[in-house]
């Protein structure tokens, strides 16, 4: 371990994107740095783009992205990790899974187990919440790369005639899931793990064709204005690898913190549990993670090499 003088100099500014899992991990890092290392840690709200730009600059304005989903954010890692070499990825990814879901009750009552079941007219009719003749399927929030891929999926799975893809903030989806379950109505939505929704409601993922790279050709709007016409997505998403990213310069400025970031090892269940406490139970992220760190001393110490 570093000397007390060295530890006192340890400082980090942690990017805090707007989704719950990222907020949780950002708070985890903050708690460990302040309570275990004795350093200074601040949370800096930002988008993926601004956080990666800050890490690239290496001046300490933003040092960390707590929750990098790959390949979703591959455009950033290709530029800053592989290309410029200014950003480093941790070595212990946890896995993320992306699907479409319905409530278990709706699935069992209507024999809806596959994404293609949403193309059954009688099922789509049960999901028509606004009376326009089509069911609604939430595909993600505005600006999400995954929402673009999901819109292509809705088209290529042959659902456009039956289901209307909806883009809205995640909070709208969470509220709608609760409302439709209470009213015993149908609702389909993009679901992913880790996420609080798995702890909040009894939901099931709909089956999709197994991931096939030859049938998953996704072009994002930033790369081509004709992205929608040129993309083809006819399989489920590849399992995601989710890592912490940090500025390479942090190893020189705050080596103990850089070592911590390299060694943190999380599971999907860890992050879903924190997300449930924060989003499901309305608790402050700092309180949730302080409590968790205090209860998991041996595991946290292993990240610190103790």
Question: Could you characterize what this model shows?
Answer:
With 306 residues, the protein is of the alpha/beta class. It has 2 domains: 4-95 and 240-303, 3-Layer(aba) Sandwich (D-Maltodextrin-Binding Protein, domain 2); 96-233, Glycine betaine-binding periplasmic protein, domain 2 (D-Maltodextrin-Binding Protein, domain 2, 3-Layer(aba) Sandwich). It contains 15 helices and 12 strands. It has helices spanning 4-8, 20-37, 48-57, 74-83, 104-110, 121-126, 145-156, 170-182, 197-200, 227-230, 250-253, 255-263, 268-280, 285-295, 297-303; strands at 11-16, 40-45, 64-70, 87-89, 94-103, 135-140, 163-167, 188-193, 203-205, 216-217, 232-233, 240-247. Strands 3, 4, 5, 6, 7, 8, 9 and 12 form an 8-stranded mixed sheet that branches. α7 (145-156) links the parallel β6 and β7 (163-167). α2 (20-37) crosses α13 (268-280). The longest helix has 18 residues, at 20-37. The protein is globular and about 65 Å long.
């Amino acid at each position: 371990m570093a000397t007390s003088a060295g530890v006192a100099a340890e400082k980090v500014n942690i990017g805090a994107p707007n989704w719950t899992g990222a907020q949780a991990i950002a708070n985890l890092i903050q708690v460990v740095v302040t309570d275990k290392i004795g350093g200074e840690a601040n949370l800096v709200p930002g988008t993926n783009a601004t956080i990666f730009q800050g890490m690239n600059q290496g001046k300490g304005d933003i040092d960390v992205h707590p929750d990098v989903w790959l390949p979703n954010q591959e455009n950033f890692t290709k530029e800053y990790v592989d290309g410029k070499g200014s950003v480093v990825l941790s070595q212990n990814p946890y896995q993320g899974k992306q699907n479409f879901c319905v409530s278990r009750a709706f699935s069992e009552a209507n024999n809806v187990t596959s994404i293609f079941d949403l193309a059954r007219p009688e099922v789509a009719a049960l999901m028509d919440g606004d009376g326009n003749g089509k069911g609604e399927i939430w595909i993600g929030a505005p600006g999400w790369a995954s929402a673009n891929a999901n819109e292509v999926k809705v088209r290529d799975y042959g659902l456009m005639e039956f289901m209307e893809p909806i883009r809205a903030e995640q909070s709208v989806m969470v509220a709608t899931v609760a409302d439709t379950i209470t009213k015993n109505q149908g609702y389909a939505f993009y679901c992913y793990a880790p996420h609080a929704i798995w702890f909040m409601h009894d939901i099931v993922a709909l089956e999709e064709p197994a991931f096939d790279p030859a049938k998953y050709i996704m072009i994002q709007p930033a790369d081509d204005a004709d992205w929608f016409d040129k993309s083809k997505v006819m399989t489920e998403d590849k399992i995601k690898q989710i890592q912490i990213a940090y500025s390479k310069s942090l190893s020189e400025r705050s080596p103990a913190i850089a070592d911590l970031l390299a060694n943190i090892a999380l599971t999907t269940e860890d992050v879903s549990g924190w997300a449930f406490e924060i989003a499901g139970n309305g608790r402050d992220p700092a309180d949730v993670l302080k409590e968790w760190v205090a209860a998991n001393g041996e595991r946290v110490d292993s990240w610190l090499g103790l």
